[in-house]
UniProtKB/TrEMBL annotation:
One of its GO terms (cellular component) is cytosol. SMART domains: RRM. It holds the Pfam family RRM_1. Its main location: cytoplasm. GO terms for biological process: DNA recombination; double-strand break repair. It is found in: Cytoplasm; Nucleus, Nucleolus. This is RAD52 motif-containing protein 1. CDD domains: RRM_RDM1. Transmembrane segments: none annotated.
Length: 275
């Protein structure tokens, strides 16, 4: 049976393993090494047992694929692996009352997932435009009066190409940061570089959100364009994307969200793109 994987943080319980009976000295890198043999991992987290429980640890191992998680559970349950005592490995079945918001993967995780299933040469990306759309925001100070604080704001439009599958998709990202002292050249350069990288990372993540990886039982991978994620940016020409007036016609409010846990991670971007 084929399995569909999207470029979002895995939230299904079928993709999570609960490991009990870990010895106190258990390390995340040992778990990662053991379970990554069954498929690509999103995360490995080790926690100490509650004070009322026996000394030791438990862990949550999160896969991108439910099929990989199932294979790992069957192969590793009641096995010693890297420690003296056997582990209890089970699929997480406890459901939370409130459904968590499904977050998009960071650009780093998107690249990791694409490289694993499509190969390093199976996709490429290019920046169509990286624009400075900075302005000034008026803010009231505690002592009263009106002041102006410069806001750095960059908009990026980016294209992801999958030549082996005949698919091309675009993404858009917006990032901003406030300057505490507009006369401080070091702060200006540092924050400008960070905002540029963050906007490029968000654009790359946004482009991957429109793709679905279809993984077949024999390991072959097909890719589908998720039309439900289609946006007006895909119908614009490059000239329109490079024009500030046309870009401002896009709805950018939903792109200017606060940095979540995913986007706060280090962005692995080619520095040459930002020169």
């Amino acid at each position: 049976m084929a399995e569909a994987l999207d470029f979002r943080v895995p939230a299904e319980s079928s993709k999570m393993l609960l490991l009990c009976g870990l010895e106190p000295a258990a390390a995340e890198h040992s778990l990662y090494s053991a379970f990554s043999e069954f498929g690509l991992l999103y995360s490995v987290r080790v926690h100490k047992n509650a004070a009322i429980a026996q000394p030791g640890c438990y862990a949550i191992v999160k896969f991108y694929s439910a099929r990989d998680a199932s294979r790992a559970q069957q192969a590793c349950n009641k096995q010693r692996l890297f420690q003296k005592s056997p582990l209890k490995v089970c699929i997480c079945t406890k459901q939370k009352v409130l459904q968590q918001q499904v977050l998009p993967l960071s650009s780093h995780k998107c690249q990791e997932l694409a490289n694993y299933y499509l190969g390093f040469n199976g996709w490429s990306s290019r920046i169509i435009t990286l624009q400075n759309i900075s302005g000034f925001d008026e803010e009231y100070e505690e002592l009263g009066g009106l002041s102006q604080k410069q806001c750095l704001k960059y908009l990026c439009a980016l294209e992801v190409m999958l030549p082996n599958h005949g698919i091309c998709t675009r993404g858009i990202g917006l990032a901003e940061a406030h300057l505490e002292n507009s006369q401080d050249s070091l702060e200006f350069v540092t924050k400008t570089r960070r905002v540029q990288k963050l906007s490029v990372g968000k654009a790359l993540s946004n482009a991957f959100q429109k793709l679905l990886l279809i993984v077949l039982e024999d390991g072959k991978v097909a890719v589908e364009y998720n039309s439900g994620q289609e946006e007006s940016i895909d119908s614009l020409t490059e000239e329109e994307l490079k024009g500030l007036t046309q870009v401002n016609d896009l709805s950018l409010e939903h792109l200017n969200h606060e940095e979540d846990e995913e986007f706060a991670c280090e962005l692995s971007l080619d520095e040459a793109h930002l020169l």
